[in-house]
Amino acid sequence: MPTSMRSPLRPERESKLKNKLLYGTLVIIVLSAAFLLAGPLGFYRWLSEAIASLDPSPAAASIDGPPILLGLYTSDSLQVTSWEIENFDEWMQDEGLDKGISIAGTYMDFEFHNPEFNVHKELDAAWDLGYTPFINLTAYQRTAEQVAHDPEFEQKLRDWASAFARWSDGGKKRAFIAPLQEMNGGWVRYGLDPQNFKLGWLKIQQIFAEEGVPEDAVNWVFAPNAWSEDGHEFEVYYPGDSVVDTVAFSSMNFGACPDYATGAKWDTYELIIEPYLNRFRAMAPGKPIFLAQIGTVSVGPNGPDDARKNEWLEETFAKLAAFPGLRGILYLNLVKAEGTISNCRPVDWRVYDKHAELAYDGFLKAVEGPQFAYWAPDSDEMTRIGFNRRTGYYEDVWPAQLLAGVDDKWYFEWVEALLDSGLAVGCSLESYPVLGREFKFEYFCPKRVVTRADMAIFVELAMRGQGYWPPAPTGRFEDVGLDYWAAGWIEQMVRDGLSSGCSETYFCPDERVSRAQMAVILGKARYWPEIVDQPQATGRMFADVRPDHWAVGWIEDLAAAGVTSGCQSGKYCPEEAVSRAELAVFVVKTFDIPLRGDREDSSWFINN
Predict the structure, then answer these.
(1) Which residues, including other chains, have CB under 8 Å from residue 102's CB and lie 6 or more apart?
(2) Which CATH architecture group holds 68-386?
(3) What is the pTM of this model?
């Protein structure tokens, strides 16, 4: 490898150190002279003003949220090669970077021989050197169905979990665990079986709990491969927000190494990383994201090109650092035989190898920014933030984890307010039987459009309070049968004078509710049990709601009450559909339901 592609040599670093010492000496001379000339009081005033006038240096600039934690995979098990991470740390520090590897990546199988010895030995090889283990916990000899149902494998699982429980020492030691990684790929025996993967995931967690593993000793990582065959996208395998702490994926720049490489034969951030980051953020908006396995070769379309590898490292890490919620990058720092690749045998992913005198300074430049930092495994940051688990109720309305460093979704507090008051209505329920326990996952569907049937339940509950159940339906509407799931609620809403259906004999229960229709129903509900006429209106409050609009009075009444301010500047968008998340906001505001933080000071719970 050409010297120009390596990190700076030690003599150059010594020269930089001499320059820093000389500069520091000059600074001391200047400050001493200022002190003697101005006196103590004048000196401190001058120094304060001088410091205040300085622009903050980029390296010292504060960053929002937790930093990005660096991780590394070594050439063998950590028991054998953890020193490679130490060498890597020394390389960064020798080159003037105040950085360090936080996470030690490893692969362990549930059926490794003697887990009581190997679990302790492997994980202590990371922990004792100051690294938090990241365990890809595999079952290479098993199908997903066997993981979920085979009694023989269950005992193996229990043995491993029991050994981990003893290693964790009551939660004093912790690890990231990614069970059955890359389960959406056909290259692992347990792959391509989403239903049994989910059952297996739940079974693993249940057995960990039964074997005494403390909850805060594990950060559960969902770690599929980025690319997949059609029908096996990672979204299909996602077990749910309540049983996942971190989401992660593997994606590598194979360059021109594969025979099947086409086009530019160089995998960029925009091609192999960014689309998947966006999908993970949409699937699990409040979860921290890790690159569970990342690496790049140096072989491009024109052959080996070290400069291009350095550029890929710099550009890719810079873009990763800017992505919201990206909190971990585990680099594959090893040489690996890939059976399906013939152009590069073996494939060399390394960015540093002390004994091979190989070092890519592109990695150093890539991680020099303030976004990257080191957290010790027993540090307050790793304990309080890295392994913190916020909980919720609805799978699709889940609070953001602290490690993600992102805000809760805008509708979270409003849905939670409905939930606290007993007025929340879910949209669907999934159930999984595991080891005699029923795992239930309820969904709110915040983005789904509100139907007229949905509206009946939300409003009647808000008016009458939690625990209310309407009388048996009489079959008033031809399109609402006696066995229709919301029949009683619909008829009660009509009896209360909030709606009269979509025609004389039809209610149209599955039609969407527009913002204008919602204003009428909620407006009337505000005055219930009194039935009032439509309030007077000016027709000048919203540009798209003229004086002759059929719902103008109710719309302006809600606006005057502070329930709505419109859809955008100066407009109400009366014909737009209402989502369930938006309805949560409108219901909470209409009925003065307190948000969670205001609950103690509210009389709502006393009166309802």
Answers:
(1) 69, 70, 71, 131, 132, 373, 374, 375, 376, 382
(2) Alpha-Beta Barrel (3.20)
(3) 0.86
